[in-house]
Amino acid sequence: MNSPYLALKGSIRGGISLAAGVAVLAALPATAQSATPVTAAQVDPIFATFNSDTAPGCAVAVDRAGQRVLTRAYGMADLEHGIRNSADTVFEAGSVSKQFTAAAALALVDAGKLKLDTDVRTIIPELPDYGQVITIDQLLNHTSGLRDWGAILALAGWPRSTRINTQNDFLAIAAKQKALNYEPGAESSYTNTGYNLLTEIVRRVSGKSLADYSRETFFVPLGMTHTQWRDNFRQVVSGRAQAYDRKGDLYEQDMPFEDAYGNGGLLTTVGDLLIWNQALDSGRLGKFVTTKLSERSTLRDGRKITYGRGLFNYTFKGAEEIAHSGATAGYRAWLGRYPAQRLSVALLCNAANADTGMGRKVAALFLPGQPDTESVKPMPEGLFVDQASGTPLDAARFRANESRIVSKDRIELIGRDGNIAVFLRTEPVARVTPADYAGSYASDEVGATYRIEPGANGLVWHIRDRPDFQHVLKPVYRDAFQGDGTTFRFQRNGSGQVTALTVSIERARNVRFSRIP
Fold it and tell me: What gap in Å lies between CA 107 and CA 113, rounded to an integer?
C-alpha cells in the first residue's frame, strides 16, 4: 500500500514519561503558550476525588504544538497490590477506540481495497437483508439503523460484562435481528454493532485481524509502544490498571470480560494517545484518513450531524473540538484535539465514577475563549412521548438537549449529535387492569422469554432462566409501562386482547415479543 504510514517508524516517539504526581510545563514558542502558563496546582483540584491511595484514579496528559506540557497521574492502578497509577499505566480506552477502527477501515478505502458506499452484506452476507442497503460509511458514522448488540443482550438479562462475549457471539446476535431502528441514513443513533462489524470487515478484506492490521499500520510505525487491542481478555498485559466500580464505601473490580472488540477494547496510555493526536495534527496518516475521521457526516435529508467517522466534531469555548469519550466496564476515557490551537488532551481512568468531562475541564485551562453558555428552559407540563420508540421524555433528557417547542403538543429535541427526536403530548394512564397483560412473551431476536405478572404497583417483569432478574413495570400511558430504563408497549388485536409487546431500550427500538398462548 502506498501510504505515509511506513515513513513514520520511530519518528514521533518523543513524549516525556513521568512518574505519578509529577507535572512538567515545557518551554514553548510564545504563539503556542496560554497567556498565563497552566500549572499542576490548577489541574490537581479537578482530580481531587481520585488523588488517593485508597481509590482508583486517572492519568492525564496535555500536548501543545507537538510538545508534552503536562502529565499527571492520580490514585491507584491496583488496589489489591498497592500499585499507583503513573504516566505509563495502561488503561482501556472504551469508545475512544472507535477512531482506530475507523482509521483502519479508511486506510483500506484509501488503498483501493474497500469503498465507503460498499453494501455491508457483500462482505458479511450472514447479516439479514432488510430490503435496504447499509453501507460501510453508515457503519462508520452511526447512521446504519442497526440495533446495538449490547442493548439486545441487556434485554436478555445479560448486560455487557456479566458474561463473556466474543466476535462470533456478537455476529450471532446481529444476524438474528429482524428490524432496524430506522431506515439507513435517515437518522443518527450511536451503535456498537457497526464498529464490531467494521472489525470483521477489516479482517475479511485485509486478511489480517484488526489487532494485527492496526499494529502493522499504525502502532509500530507511530511508536505507540504501549498500545494493543484487547482481543483476548485473559492475556496478561504488563502495567495494566484494574478497573473498579464503587459500591457504597467500597470498590469492586469491574473488568470488561469479553473478546468482542473494535467498538472498544484499545489498551493504551495517555502518552500513546497524544502520539496518535500528533499524527492526526500533522497529517501523517494521510489527508484522506485524517479528513474523513472528523468530517461531519450528512443524513439523507441533507442535515449535518456532529459525528464524523470515529470522532465527534464539536465547538468548545469558541474552538473546534475533535473528540470522543469512552466507557467500558469500570474504565473511563476522553481524548480531545483542538487543531487551530495545536492542543491535545488525553484522559484515562480506572474508576467507573470518573467523569470524562474532567478532560474538557483540563482543556478549558489552556483555551483562551469564553466558557460556553447554556440556556435552561423549563420543561412544559404534561406527558410527552418519543414518537419513534414510545419512551416518555424526562426532565434530565430535556435539560441535556437543545429543545424546540413546536406547539403545546409537540417538542423536538436536538441532541449533541445533531439528531432530532420528536415527542408528542400523550394522555397519562388513568387506570389499568394488570390481568390483561399477565402471561409469557418470547422473542427470537433477543433469545429470551419474559413472564409478566400482576404486581402491587403495576406489573412484575421476569426473564426465564434468570432467577435473580425481577423489575417492577409502572404504567405510564395506555398499554405502556416503564421499568429499569426500558419501555414496554403491549399490543392488542381487534378483539382487544393483548397478543404481543414491543420493548425499547437505549440504542434498540421496538423489539418484538409474541405472547405465548
Answer: 9
Cα→Cα distances 481→383, 398, 512, Å:
13, 20, 15
CA 193 to chain centre: 11
CB 38, CB 366: distance < 8 Å: yes
Distances (CA, A) of 381 to 3, 216, 398: 57, 57, 12
C-alpha cell at 351: 474508576
- At residue 15, does pLDDT exceed 60? no
Q: C-alpha cell of 130?
A: 432488510
Q: How confident is the model at residue 416 (pLDDT cuts 50, 70, 90)?
A: confident
Q: d(Cα 472, Cα 434) in Å, to the nearest integer?
A: 12
Report the amino acid identity of residue 507.
R
Residues 6+ away with beta carbon under 8 Å from 280: 290, 293, 322, 337
What DSSP string describes 420-468?
EEEEEE-PBP----GGGT-EEEEETTTTEEEEEEEETTEEEEEETT-TT
Q: Is the distance from CB of 246 to CB of 207 less than 8 angstroms?
A: no
Which of the four pLDDT bands, split at 50, 70 and 90, describes residue 37? Answer: confident
pTM, entire model: 0.92
Helix (H) or strand (E) segment spanning residue 110: helix 98-110
Q: Is 504 exposed, middle or buried (0-12, 13-18, 19+ CB in 10 A)?
A: buried
Closest to 269 in 3D by CA, of 71, 70, 88, 98? 88
